[in-house]
Please model this.
Amino acid sequence: PVTPKPVVLIAEELSPATVEALGPDFEIRSTDGADRAQLLGALADVDAVLVRSATRMDAEAISAAPKLKVIARAGVGLDNVDIKAATQAGVMVVNAPTSNIISAAELTVGHILSLARNIPQASAALKAGEWKRSKYSGTELYEKNIGIIGLGRIGALVAARLQGFGTQILAYDPYVTSARAAQLNVRLVTLDELLRESDFVTIHMPKTPETVGMLGADAFALMKDTAYVVNVARGGLVDEVALHTALEEGRIAGAGVDVFVQEPSTDLPFFAHDSVVVTPHLGASTEEAQEKAGVSVAKSVRLALAGELVPDA
Ligand code: MLT
Model:
């Protein structure tokens, strides 16, 4: 009798390189992980599941998958995976922690430049027939203070890229040593100092109970009224309601936002401000990042299902 191949469920659109890297040893299926009923049904007899950020692998999903051995997150953040429930069920969780960091850092720079020069707004206006040169006059990044909250892999790449513009980088990160900050040519400051002094504040933290709402009313009150805030990390790190109020009251100049508390979100109140630039969770959406993420998790799934050790990336 032929032994059935282990089943790998792909629950979100991944790079074609993922399937190639998995090779011929698995039965590969796909489902729409954002469709809860479809997901729970599809998990019934799978050995591994591959997800991005739209699939919630919580305790319920994990218990719907009695044969599951590995959950693979084709990206960095693990906030959509219940690690505790997975561990209790003996399910290994792997991610691709360096796959999309360059893409995330580059999108951050894109948001900062968009805010400084009103590129999306001016483009939309011009396409609508309006030639508005003075309305969309902007600011230079040169000699401005950029505040980076979270100087991890992505934050450090953002710092290096923005230094090319002649900016000064301030960072708040309780886990970074002064030696590391000096090596990156970054001034480590307290969160309050960062908020008071920065012209652009960008957050690069994971989503945890401690970081949710980290940029809220108190933070906006400390910021310059000419400052911009950027969130390409996780929805909710910047409080969406407080952001709307801060913009209404003119406490800050604008915001660049790629991630939202609820995704998809297409009509949040703060979208109404012309000084807000939004993108639909595109931080990792490049060909390069998706290929790296897909290949990296495919390799980890192969090792995990073969009962071998999965090395840290
Ligand atoms: C991540 O955590 O890596 C990003 O959110 C990317 C993604 O969702 O694919």
Summary: The CA atoms of residues 86 and 187 lie 39 Å apart.
